[in-house]
């Protein structure tokens, strides 16, 4: 092995699944290095004890196995800041996968520093966005870290070759893994995404069994669900008056969305690396949160601030989608977004019904809504209808000048 390839200790982002278990053994075989596993609990809905047991079974030392509960940090420091901007990518996608990657990268680098590792490793393929997101995060936080991306390095040409390697190294293979998986899944507390195989043809309906976070809207109750959501400085803090931690609040919203068939999305998106992909995403709590946040902003944000936020949002969304969470321009935008949220405090009343969300009420101690100004009845406001004539004429001036010129031409 050349000095360039030499690795002493590597921190592997480890799910406990077949692919990352194969990667674990491949690292030991290829680099002859010590492997530290890191498994993040982001609310994916799976027991993480088996990941620890699997790592032990594969020979990882107990002191080199890290399983961390990051749910509160994930929602508080990544999901909520993103939702303050009403962030959607390409008009639809709530970035459930993209927003998780910088936190995983951050935790992985923290462990690498703690254990003195000189490399980190992820299991993202060479065709997707995640390889970019992970590695931009690594390099932003630890500029000289060595990054190992097995899917770009190894010589396995097929699923059968991977299975043969697993059997050779006594890596347990679940019965459902011996055949081709019908689709791949990534999940966390914000969303689940399903891609590939039965979903690759964008003209074919997604089978109902793909959906795991929501019931079908057709099967949702015939009676609407009503509740209130309280905000403080742009972040949700309570449901029906009950104060909840960030992760607990999102979990409750997820259940409300699940029960009412809210949050399904079937889309074709543009990956950063240049190809299009079709995915089926479910973001029940996030879909409710987006609608509710826009509802409270509608009475607390000035028009200019609101419209500027809407102009900045697509750039902000693209930065997150493309993996630039730790970039200075994202932090600059975040500062502007957070400044706008100083008065975004109050209560929104939400109605869910068969996949639909309606904001049916909103109130705030900082409301800019002035009923005396907008009423059709005779009010006591300082608004003088006659002022509108001059306002309109001044705004029409350039249009009149253009029209006169065009008439001459």
Summarize the structure.
The chain is of the alpha/beta class and 409 residues long. The protein has helices spanning 18-31, 49-57, 71-84, 101-115, 130-141, 150-153, 159-168, 246-259, 284-300, 303-321, 328-340, 371-374, 387-408; strands spanning 9-13, 34-41, 65-69, 119-121, 146-148, 184-187, 192-195, 225-232, 235-239, 242-243, 264-270, 276-282, 346-353, 356-363. The strands form three sheets. It has a five-stranded parallel beta sheet, sandwiched between helices.
What does this structure look like?
- The structure is a single chain.
- The chain has 409 residues and is an alpha/beta fold.
- The protein folds into two domains: 9-77 and 98-179, HUPs (Rossmann fold, 3-Layer(aba) Sandwich), CATH 3.40.50.620; 185-301 and 343-363, Argininosuccinate synthetase, chain A, domain 2.
- The protein is 41% helix and 19% strand.
- It is built from 13 helices and 14 strands.
- The strands form three sheets. It has a five-stranded parallel β-sheet, with helices on both faces.
- The mean pLDDT is 93.
Calculate the terminal CA-CA distance, rounded to whole Å. Answer: 78 Å
* Low-confidence spans: none
Shape, principal axes of CA atoms: elongated
Query: Whole-number radius of gyration?
Result: 25 Å
Main sheet characteristics: 5 strands, parallel
């Amino acid at each position: 092995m050349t000095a360039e390839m030499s690795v002493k200790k590597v921190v592997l982002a480890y799910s406990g699944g077949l692919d990352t278990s194969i990667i674990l053994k491949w690292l030991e075989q290829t680099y002859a290095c010590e492997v530290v596993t890191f498994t993040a609990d982001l609310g994916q809905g799976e027991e993480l004890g088996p990941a620890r047991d699997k790592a032990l079974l594969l020979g990882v030392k107990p002191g080199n196995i890290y399983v961390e509960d990051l749910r509160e940090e994930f929602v508080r420091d990544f999901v909520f800041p993103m939702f303050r901007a009403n962030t959607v990518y390409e008009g639809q996608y709530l970035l459930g996968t993209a927003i998780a990657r910088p936190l995983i990268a951050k935790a992985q680098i923290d462990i690498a520093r703690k254990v003195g590792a000189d490399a980190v490793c992820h299991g993202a393929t060479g065709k997707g966005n995640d390889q970019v997101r992970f590695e931009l995060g690594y390099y932003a936080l630890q500029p000289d870290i060595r990054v190992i991306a097995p899917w770009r390095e190894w010589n396995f040409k097929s699923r059968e070759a991977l299975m043969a390697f697993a059997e050779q190294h006594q890596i347990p293979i679940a019965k459902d893994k011996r055949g081709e998986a019908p689709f791949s899944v990534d999940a966390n507390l914000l969303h689940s995404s399903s891609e590939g195989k039965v979903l690759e043809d964008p003209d074919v309906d997604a089978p109902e069994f793909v959906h795991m976070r929501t019931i079908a809207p057709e099967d949702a109750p015939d009676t609407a669900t009503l509740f209130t959501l309280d905000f403080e400085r742009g972040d949700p803090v309570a449901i029906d008056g009950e104060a909840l931690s960030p992760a607990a609040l999102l979990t409750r919203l997820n259940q409300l969305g699940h029960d009412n068939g809210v949050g399904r999305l079937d889309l074709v998106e543009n990956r950063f690396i240049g190809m299009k992909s079709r995915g089926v995403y479910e973001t029940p709590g996030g879909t409710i949160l987006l609608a509710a946040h826009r509802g409270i902003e509608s009475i607390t944000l000035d028009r200019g601030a609101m419209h500027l936020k809407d102009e900045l949002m697509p750039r902000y969304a693209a930065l997150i989608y493309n993996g630039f969470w730790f970039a200075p321009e994202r932090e600059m935008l975040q500062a502007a977004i957070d400044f706008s949220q100083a008065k975004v405090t109050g209560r929104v009343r939400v109605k869910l019904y068969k996949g639909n969300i309606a904001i049916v009420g909103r109130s705030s101690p900082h409301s800019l809504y002035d009923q005396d100004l907008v009423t059709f009845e005779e009010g006591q406001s300082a608004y003088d209808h006659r002022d509108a004539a001059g306002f309109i004429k001044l705004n029409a001036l350039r249009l009149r000048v253009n029209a006169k010129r065009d008439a001459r031409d």
